[in-house]
Amino acid sequence: MSSDANDPLHASTQQFTGLAMRANRVLMETAESALGLQLGQLQHSASATGQFLDALSKGQDPAQLVPQGLQLAQDNLQRLGQTGHNLMDLGLRSGQQLAELARTGLGATPPSSGKPG
């Protein structure tokens, strides 16, 4: 009799473990993508800044360097803003995936359209 009582518990435990593993995979993929986005932005900004500093160290005309420096700052800020936007989008998509996992994994039915069945 005890094995009969354990079967539903065992099945529920396996279902919960599978759900937790899928959720963990979604979170790890999100973290990996977020890190890739941030490192890509940092690499691009650092490269552009390095080129500007190289030009500055070679003693180029300051009249040319000021507009270049301002453009560099603007480009870096735009990249930073775009990366932030992409990170927010990534977080929203990850949240939607986790909500879908929770909905289907816990056996909940999707929200109804409001029409009686």
UniProtKB/TrEMBL annotation:
InterPro entries: Phasin. Residues 11-103 form the Phasin domain. This is Phasin domain-containing protein.
